[in-house]
Amino acid sequence: ALCIACGRKKDITAGVVTDCMALIHKQTGRQISLQSGVIAERRFDRLFIGRKKEEKYFFAEVTGFPFETLLPETGKKLVLSVKKREELEENIPKSTYTKWFDYDKIEKVISVRTVAAEDEIAVFADGRKKKAADVFAEAKIPKEQRKNFPVLAEGNKVLWIPGIRGSEGYRITKETGNILIAELYGGNENGR
Prior knowledge:
By secondary structure, the chain is mainly β. It has helices spanning about 1-5, 15-25, 130-140, 145; strands at about 30-35, 40-45, 45-50, 60, 65-70, 75-85, 100, 110-115, 120, 130, 150-155, 155-160, 165, 180-185.
């Protein structure tokens, strides 16, 4: 695997192999740099050997509805719309790829962007939050993938990490008048 990733056998010594093997017993996220921009990294229960992915920042401000954007790196399309509660006859969807949020609780402009270090998401009904990074770790998303992962956010408050978790802070209640509908096309459920 080292030879394939590096593209050659030169400079791959027994010491390099030993260092890579030692990663198996270290914490998730530990890594070593090898030749030609290749890294070896412990990712949960696996050892990853490959090229480090370039970080790409993505930002799209939601200026009106309906709104749609292609998410970078995934090829998936995110579609946002706002509807009055009376217009919707169905129950709140339980799909991983369709989420409803209380639009009346949103105070600032929302955006679709790559996750930031200071991002938080309300994970409990009482409003307690977790860092988005912790939610990614619990979902076993490797650090390398998190850097380019898109989120729906209001400032540093995350409404939705698509396919992983929605915020409890924007949960629909009896008082909700307007609903923000977020749909991700290109996921796995019902052809989306």
